[in-house]
Amino acid sequence: MTLASPGRAVFVNQLVKRYGRTVAVGGASLEVETGEIFGIIGPNGSGKTTTVECLQGLRTRDSGEVRVLGLDPQAQRNALRHRIGSQLQESALPERLRVWEALDLFAAMSPHSRNWRELLEEWDLTEKRDTAFADLSGGQRQRLFVALALVNEPEIVFLDEMATGLDPAARRGAWELVRQVRRRGTTIVLVTHFMDEAEELCDRIAVFRAGTVVALGTPPELVARYAGRSLVRFTDNTEDLDWLRDCPGAEEVAREGPRVEVRGTGPLLAHVGAALVAHGIAPADLRVERATLEDAFMAMTGEGAP
Amino acid sequence: MRGVGKLAWIETKLFVREPLALLFAFAFPFFMLFVLAGVFGNDVDPTDEENLRVWRGVGPTDYYISTYVGLVMASAGLITLPLRLASYRETGVLRRFRAAGVPLGVVLGAQVLVAIGMAIIGAAGIVVAGRAAYGAQMPESWPLVLVGSAMGLAMFAAIGLLLGAILPTSRAVQGAGLTLFIVMMMISGSGPPREVLTTVMQTVSDGLPLTHLNLLVQDAWLGFGWNTGQALVVVAITVVAGFLAVRFFRWE
Question: Each residue of B52-74: b (16+ CB within 10 Å) or e?
Fold first, then answer.
């Protein structure tokens, strides 16, 4: 690691955290640049949340080096606590606490808070201002938690499964707000199990598996590196299509009834199309499926999205 | 400490929004007043030496009224306060407070303020009810009673924090806190007078915080003066419980 690294927004080197005999994080390393939206993805139990909790100063690490805004979240928690915001995965508020009271309370805990009425507006909670926490829907609670994480104008905000419980429209709304937050200059660390969310929002992504970072890069880099193969699909009833294997780059031809899938590398669509036309076949639905982060994720972790 | 005031005010509002919890917090002492004043009345027979010894020379209602004040404080410290802390831990409220940078002192300070406020209201209520409905005697020395009561509030606040710190769940509090409360209610002088307890019960009673608080406040109330020995015990319990509470507090 370079000497300049600890000055980054987040710097983690060989972080280890055990719970009894279970190793939750076993030597994870990553860096988050100032102003970046940094994603953390990985299967359940891969150490994402534990890592973030170590960054927030909520857990005591067993070994390794951690710096957030240049500070050690464990030893310098007091200096750090007003400069970071946290939306936690599992937590609650008192049942009868009203939305405005929660924002007002959390704002009072920090010396430099935003006007929480603006946050109510931004996160679409104005109508729920006087509603008790227990009477909020899952999505409303989630939005409140994010708003609470932002009330102290943090330099870094940690969003752990922000979109859980949001319907698709609200999820897209939340993405736009996250981008806005970044435009204000806040660095964002986003733990998510929604691949589309990570692909859409994040500048860079760390992929966790079994307590370590197994891949790190921009979404297109990860897709190219781990899901480089293309998939060409079309429908046709011709019995013998084995000649498609001779197309340059084609590796695998699979069919189920009329549905045909050709997997391979390179400009596969062009070669398959040329071969089909040469055999007098011109399927109307010939298309190539671009690999997504989800495909890359499955290739990297050996499983589907958690 | 702007934070403590704000959180204490919110906690107060939360309490008022749960009328059942409010009622329960005060129910036992009033129930004891109603039952024991009804059973024993407030008459003194100056010729019955045994009776004078058991009731310290005063009528039973006069004897009991100060101990109900102690009972109100015990209810706040053994049930209300730890129940709130434990349920906050269980549901992740403490975790969220911590992540938001709410200092431990603010969380505990606010709970203590609310518990003390509730206990003061309850104690005032029991004194007014005892006076109005059963003609209970008012303190011989208000200053000593107030000082002793303030020490009692501090002691049960500390005990409440300790129970809230070491009992992991609200179920544990409901079990342990309620058991402790009922034991104290029965043999700390708020139930049968100490003089009629068996030797074993008296020994157990000596180990209960409420016993010492009751003796301290009762002495001041009935005109027996300031009981320095009991006052020291009350202070010692406060300090030890407060220290252990902060030492063993867990956010999650």
Answer: eebbeebbbbbbbbbbbbbbbbb
List the one residue out of B206, B11, B177, B122 whose CA is nearest residue A101.
B11
The answer on A282 and A167 residing in a single domain is no
Q: What are phi and psi of A50, to 5 degrees?
A: -60, -45
| ipTM of the shown complex | 0.84
Position A1 pLDDT exceeds 60 = no
Give residue ranges of A with CB < 8 Å to any B CB: 56, 58, 81-82, 86, 88, 90-94, 96-97, 101, 104-106, 108-110, 132, 145, 148, 152
CATH code of residue A273: 3.30.70.980
Q: How many CB atoms lie within 10 A of CB B194?
A: 18
Q: Is A109 close to B102, i.e. CB distance below 8 A?
A: yes
The pLDDT score that the predictor gives to residue A305 is: 43
* Interchain pair B99, A86: CB under 8 A: yes
Q: Which residues of chain B are under the pLDDT cut of 70?
A: 1
What whole-number distance in Å separates Cα of residue B98 and Cα of residue B104?
A: 8
Same domain, yes or no, for A78 and A161?
yes
In a domain, A126, yes or no: no
Q: Which amino acid is at B29?
A: P
Domains in chain B, number:
1
| Angle, CA A25 vertex, CA B94 and CA A164 arms, to 5° | 55
- The C-alpha atoms of residue B98 and residue B28 are separated, in whole angstroms, by 34
| Domain span including residue A234 | 229-290
pLDDT of residue B182: 93
Residue A162 has pLDDT above 60, yes or no: yes
Confidence of residue A7 (pLDDT cuts 50, 70, 90): low
Residue at token pair 């209201």: B121
Pairing of β A250-256 and β A187-191: unpaired
Chain-centre distance for alpha carbon A186: 17
Do A161 and A37 fall within a single domain?
yes
Question: Do the strands A156-160 and A84-87 form a parallel or antiparallel pair, or are they unpaired?
Answer: parallel
Q: Which of A181, A208, A224 is the last residue of a domain?
A: A224
Contact call for residues A91 and B96 (beta carbons, < 8 A): yes
| pTM, two decimal places | 0.82
- Break chain A down into helix, strand, coil percent, rounded to 5: 35, 25, 40
Residue B101 Rama label (left phi>0; alpha psi -120 to 50; beta): left
Kindly list the residues from chain B whose CB atom is less than 8 angstroms away from the CB atom of residue A189.
none
Cβ atoms B51, B206 nearer than 8 A: no
The partner residue sitting opposite A96, judged by closest CB among B14, B100, B102, is: B14
